[in-house]
Design a protein that fits this description.
alpha/beta, Arc Repressor Mutant, subunit A, D-Maltodextrin-Binding Protein, domain 2, six-stranded mixed beta sheet, two-stranded antiparallel sheet, elongated, disordered N terminus
């Protein structure tokens, strides 16, 4: 492609094509872009004319990307994602000369681990930090779209092996905690867990699989009273005496000190792993990059 052609390429037309491809129809794209359908159709034809390729095929009254269209869409996606990334990075760098780091964290990640990560970020340079907690799938999409810089999870996040990078940063021992009324279960642990009510992580959790394997190997049957991926809720239910909670000891240490929960015993060989993930970016967030390279814990 010549330099002259690049100068002639209308990036408004390229963006219109990109939106049409994402929305799947000219009508939906026109509504999103707030321009008329005839105008949008004309500008798409102008882009196809300048490229010398048809970008869509019409089958059963629906638009489908042609082979050339699929290739053009891949490049357009990179162009506009990179443009958004550039604006975000420049705006963040220009605000008080301070780098802004956005960290996503699953509800199941202990708050003490989130706190340590934030404190490590402050040590690595002049920065401000935002923390967004939520569902793993949602946060992973936010990471891939560069809306957050880092993701803390209790499993290795995977979406696109070429764009998402992760590393384990902590391996935490798991104990069974409970309200003081269950103190007699300390005797003959772990066999004393037989038939007891448990508040366990949801099925997506790596710890859930570790627990199921542990109970099976030790021939222990438990009563699964409740499931939650939110560690804070799990701790609250444990305090109320709803059931026993298998949890990373560090996540319960404050309540243990306050004697609102007691440790019945450690589950030998069962660990909660915490992972830190980032997405490939053309313009790296310098603090996030340092955190990914550092030995944090």
């Amino acid at each position: 492609m010549t330099d002259n052609f690049l100068l002639e390429l209308n990036f408004h037309h390229l963006y219109y094509f990109y939106v049409i491809a994402k929305e799947g129809s000219i009508a939906k794209a026109a509504e999103r872009l707030r321009i008329g359908q005839p105008t949008l159709s004309t500008q798409l034809k102008q882009l196809e004319g300048s490229l010398g390729k048809e970008l869509f095929e019409r089958r059963k009254q629906r638009l489908h990307l042609s082979e050339s269209g699929k290739l053009a869409y891949q490049y357009a996606e990179q162009v506009f994602n990179l443009g958004s990334e550039m604006v975000e990075v420049l705006q963040e760098r220009l605000t008080n000369n301070r780098v802004h780091v956005q960290i996503g964290a699953l509800d199941s990640v202990p708050k003490s681990i989130i706190l340590k990560t934030i404190m490590q970020a402050y040590k690595m340079g002049n920065c401000s930090v935002s923390v967004l907690e939520g569902d793993g799938g949602q946060l992973l999409r936010e990471l891939a779209a560069h809306k957050i810089d880092l993701l803390l999870a209790n499993y290795p996040p995977q979406q696109d092996a070429k764009s998402i990078f992760s590393k384990p940063i902590a391996k935490l021992k798991v104990v069974v905690c409970a309200a003081p009324k269950f103190k007699d279960l300390k005797k003959n642990f772990p066999k004393s867990l037989e038939g007891q009510p448990f508040i366990i992580p949801t099925v997506h959790s790596h710890l859930r699989r570790e627990l199921e394997h542990y109970f099976k190997m030790n021939e222990i049957r438990v009563d699964q009273t409740a499931e939650t991926q939110d560690t804070s809720l799990q701790l609250l239910l444990g305090q109320e005496g709803v059931g026993l909670i298998p949890i990373a000891e560090v996540a319960a240490q404050d309540l243990i000190k306050e004697k609102k929960l007691i440790v019945l015993g450690e589950l030998e060989g069962v660990y909660e792993e915490i992972w830190l993930a980032s997405a490939s970016r053309k313009i790296e967030n310098p603090i996030a990059a340092k955190l990914m390279k550092a030995v944090l814990y």
